[in-house]
Specification:
CATH superfamily of the largest domain: monomeric porin ompg
Radius of gyration: 46 Å
Number of domains: 4
Number of helices: 6
CATH class of the largest domain: Mainly Beta
Strand content: 25-35%
Structural class: alpha+beta
Number of strands: 21
Strand order of the largest sheet: 1-2-3-6-7-8-9-12-13-14-15-16
Distance between the termini: 91 Å
Order of helices and strands: HHEEEEEEHEEEEEEEEEEEEHEHEHE
């Protein structure tokens, strides 16, 4: 145990420090007191006793928490809440009855809680809240055997003491020190230290008979549609023995998730609450309860909240009923005390810089004459606004091109903004500036936008001057052959034949007078080495459909072989005979039948 002199000296030191340091020092002193006092609170002679708290449902009513779980955020200066809760638990105390097996001593319990909380302080690195929880057991039905009068016999075949009663529970007074906050550090983290006062009825499983302490770390994080919260800590309890049950100090975990389908309307809360007795491990000392329910906001603002839910005992340690149902109503008032986080005497709602102290003449911000966001004592040019990267001084423009030197890659040579302040060059030396040259790395003509001229058909007439860029022809005829038999129509994807391809009658042999036509098709294929072509054969309707289709297929195969013989790759050609299936004119006239007997070339890719 630490001496009273040491406690008194630490307290006086806290009074001598500034406000911020004082709160931290008092918090540290309380932690020392809890660590030093816990063994005293826990010391008692092991005895057969009903002096322990059976009820484990202790709602937090914290607007940033869950059902039992506290959030890591502080309430805010002057903000307070009031909560009223009622819960029903079925068979919260079941023990090993020897020859009779498992036996329920408490058939059911109807309990309630009154919760109060208020925010005392809310600063960037420190927030302080105070909570009070007053539990009641409205009614408890059941009874337990008087094992003392039975000589310590644990067979529970002795006199039964009835528990049909109401009882007051141990009040709890807690302080929450908020260390981190989401709005500043990205996550809420707090230390919560509480004292449970011996106000409860020790004859009805509602009081420990002496003061006990608890300490938790509370963390929370809110995303768009989900809220996470968790508590981990220790609750000191005096060691008591009741039949086959031993109560002692516990390691406590509680936490879960809040789903927010509709903000400020309702939430779905899921929580787990568990404990492990330290030094007295048994099945009855490892309680685990799974809790679920809803939180409704019936008003337009989320000041009034209604909780409705139930719980299932996963591990039926003492105090965990087989099932539980509960209802809670809380009212949370917005901060009523003006907040002044930076302590400059200007409340936050009137302070333009609530986290930086400054004079009222500057609306609570540090003095900054040129209003560049850099306070004068750190500003190299306090009367001329400038960026922080230049220590508060404006950047110049040495070359006068309208681009400040910090953004100008050529500070001594004027140039346009889209070239970062540098003049445009001519990398390929073709007389065209790179900003208008479509091929800045290859010399070309101005007429072709700075790109080299192309000559697809390799007839020495460049494409932009070639009237037939896909078919070679003499310069004297502007790149076109003296006789043109084909024409490329890129819109329809066809190589149009201006003269038909003729075959021997009823045969697939190509007539020699059609060779020049197919040679120009070869020239188009060579000028466009990436395209593939489908050769289609068609006939009139004379003869049978089967015969005509076979004849058209043989004729397209002949055309395909001719093109391949002229150097066109096989994988660039597809031959398809359609027979009389796709006429383009009437088969009732000689002229129409002549038009239907045809070969077509379709560009497929």
């Amino acid at each position: 145990m630490m001496s009273k002199w040491l406690y008194a000296r630490c307290f006086l030191y806290g009074l001598e420090t500034n406000t911020m340091r004082r709160w931290w020092w008092f918090g540290f002193l309380c932690v020392l007191w809890v660590a030093d006092a816990r063994p005293v609170f826990a010391q008692t002679n092991s005895q057969i006793s009903t002096s322990f708290v059976l009820q484990r449902f202790r709602p937090s009513s914290d607007p940033d928490g869950l059902f039992n779980t506290y959030g890591g955020e502080s309430l805010g200066q002057g903000r307070f809440f009031v909560g009223l809760w009622a819960d029903f638990g079925y068979q919260p105390l079941v023990i090993n009855g020897g020859r009779e097996g498992r036996r329920s001593l408490v058939d059911w319990q109807l309990g309630g809680n009154l919760d109060l909380g208020i925010g005392i302080l809310d600063m960037k690195w420190l927030g302080i809240d105070v909570f009070l929880d007053a539990p009641w057991s409205f009614y408890m039905a059941g009874g337990f055997p008087n094992t003392i009068s039975c000589g310590g016999n644990s067979g529970i075949d002795c006199q039964v003491n009835r528990l049909d009663t109401a009882a007051l529970g141990d009040f709890s007074l807690s302080v929450r020190w908020r260390i981190l906050a989401e709005k500043w550090q990205g996550v809420g983290l707090s230390l919560l230290i509480g004292v449970q006062l011996p106000t409860g009825d020790t004859s009805a499983f509602s009081g420990e008979g002496e003061a006990t302490v608890q300490a938790f770390l509370a963390a929370s994080k809110t995303f768009d549609f989900i809220r996470l919260a968790g508590n981990l800590g220790v609750r000191s309890r005096p060691e008591r023995t009741f039949l086959d049950l031993t109560t002692t100090t516990e390691l406590i975990f509680q936490g879960g998730v809040g789903l927010i389908p509709s903000k400020d309307k309702f939430e779905i809360l899921l929580e787990a609450k568990a404990g492990i007795a330290l030094g007295a491990f048994s099945a009855s000392n490892v309680p685990l309860e799974l809790i679920g329910g809803m939180k409704f906001y019936p008003l337009s603002e989320p000041t009034l909240a209604i909780y409705l839910g139930g719980a299932w005992g996963a591990f039926l340690g003492y105090g965990i009923p087989a099932f539980r149902a509960f209802l809670g109503i809380t009212f949370t008032r917005k901060a009523i005390l003006p907040s002044d986080r930076d302590r400059d005497g200007i409340i936050d709602k009137d302070d333009s810089c609530p986290d930086q102290p400054g004079p009222r003449s500057n609306r609570g911000c540090p003095a900054d004459r040129d209003r560049d966001g850099i306070i004068d004592r750190l500003d190299k040019c306090p009367d001329r606004p400038g960026p922080r990267s230049n220590r508060g001084c404006p950047y110049g423009d040495i070359d006068g091109d309208g681009i400040l030197d910090n953004e100008d890659n050529c500070v001594n040579t004027p140039g346009p903004l889209d070239n970062n302040g540098c003049p445009w060059g001519d990398k390929d030396g073709d007389g065209m500036k790179d900003n208008v040259d479509q091929c800045p790395d290859r010399a070309g003509s101005k007429e072709n936008h700075g790109c080299p001229d192309l000559d697809r058909d390799k007839d020495t007439v460049v494409d932009r001057k070639d009237n037939c860029p896909d078919i070679p022809g003499p310069v004297s005829n502007k790149g076109c052959p003296l006789k043109i038999f084909v024409k490329v129509n890129k819109k329809t994807g066809k190589i149009l034949l201006l003269k038909k391809v003729y075959f021997a009658t009823a045969r697939a042999k190509i007539r020699k007078k059609s060779y020049p036509v197919l040679d120009q098709v070869v020239a188009v294929m060579n000028s466009n080495p990436k395209i593939r072509v489908r050769i289609e054969g068609h006939t009139d309707d004379r003869g049978s459909a089967r015969y005509n289709k076979n004849l058209s297929q043989r004729r397209t195969d002949s055309v395909k072989r001719y093109l391949e013989g002229k150097g066109v790759a096989e994988n660039r050609l597809v031959a398809k005979g359609f027979g009389e299936e796709k006429p383009i004119a009437s088969n009732k006239t000689r002229k129409g039948r002549a038009e239907n007997r045809r070969v077509e070339f379709h560009i497929i890719d």
